Amino acid sequence: MASRVSLKSKGKSSGGKGSKGMEEKSTSQCLKEWSTWAMKKAKVITHYGFIPLVIIIGMNSEPKPQLYQLLTPV
Amino acid sequence: MAGMVPPGTAVLGEASAAASAKNINEVGKKVDYMNLPCPIPYEELHREALMSLKPEFFEGMRFDFTKGLNQKFSLSHSVFMGPMELPSQSAETIKIPTAHYEFGANFIDPKLMLFGRVLTDGRLNARVKCDLTEDLTLKANAQLTNEPHMSHAMFNFDYKGKDYRTQLQLGNGALFGASYIQSVTPHLSLGGEVFWAGQHRKSGLGYAVRYETDKMVATGQVASTGMVALSYVQKVSEKVSLATDFMYNYMSRDVTASVGYDYILRQARLRGKIDSNGCAAAFLEERLNMGLNFILSAELDHKKKDYKFGFGLTVG
Lengths: 74, 316
Fold this sequence. Notes:
- The complex is a heterodimer of chains A (74) and B (316).
- Chain A has 74 residues and is mainly α.
- Chain A has a domain at 27-71.
- Chain A is built from 3 helices and no strands.
- Chain A is rod-shaped, with a radius of gyration of 27 Å.
- By secondary structure, chain B is mainly beta.
- Helix content of chain B is 9%, strand content 59%.
- Classes of the chains: A mainly alpha (74), B mainly beta (316).
- The interface between A and B is medium-sized, with 20 and 24 residues.
- Chain B: Its main location: mitochondrion.
- Chain B: Belongs to the Tom40 family.
């Protein structure tokens, strides 16, 4: 009996929340979702792009090194 | 009556007069409290003790090759083969033999420093230091991995004033920290820090003091996480420094004391230390030739019966 009661109340509350949630996607929720998405993208970009960025900045600094110097060991 | 002084005492009188004049000069030289030197950054408080007592010990073989393409830009290739220790809860140490190759690129400019290292398993270690203005510096440090939730990043904003420094730290996992250090006399500086870790719901406060002269450096640090760290480094001569370190955690009642030496010779640098945990260690860097360094590292932990030996070569 107790379990049935609790299930019922759960159903009611989730139903209630569901209807409210559809109307009121609050700005803080939006902000959190977008900032998480932005952090994830920034992490992937940094992970793949940091070393190429350093190499590009280095190859464009004065005096400009040649491309073969990048690849040969000596 | 001044003319009655015998000649023997006149010579002594002169020497003592010169000595007392020197003392008066030193004491009389007023400390200019408006012109104190800028203190060292808060995180480098124990710098001398760390340099002498905690070099980078390793186990296995290490080979580092740094190739400079121009004054500011260089690439580095590094190979490591040896056992890696896994952190384990039990008293036994678990070691797994690994080998990896690490590629790195460095760009060093007076205003901008970029440092990147990537390993064969995809881990990236990146450091950026940028002088936004003359007094404000941005530093960033990140370790990124392919595994989810295992990456860390930290951003620091440092402001350097005339005789003080402040730092603001932001890290992932809602980590906030701030620190402040101020020169109080030409030799003494005091500092404090506060941090808040959102993910672990921890916050803490800490104080630090550093007293340095030409010959010695003494530092002390207390934190509300229970850590007390004291260190003392004495520069015995140009080539020799001796250091000692004491760490005490008053929450977990853990004590470690260590004593070490640092010999900086013309062709070699030898650092050794012995610990109260029964660990004796030494680290030698020998310059074989211009740009060619040979490294030997040894760490004997008698309490845990863990003996680590490493050798390596650094080129460039």
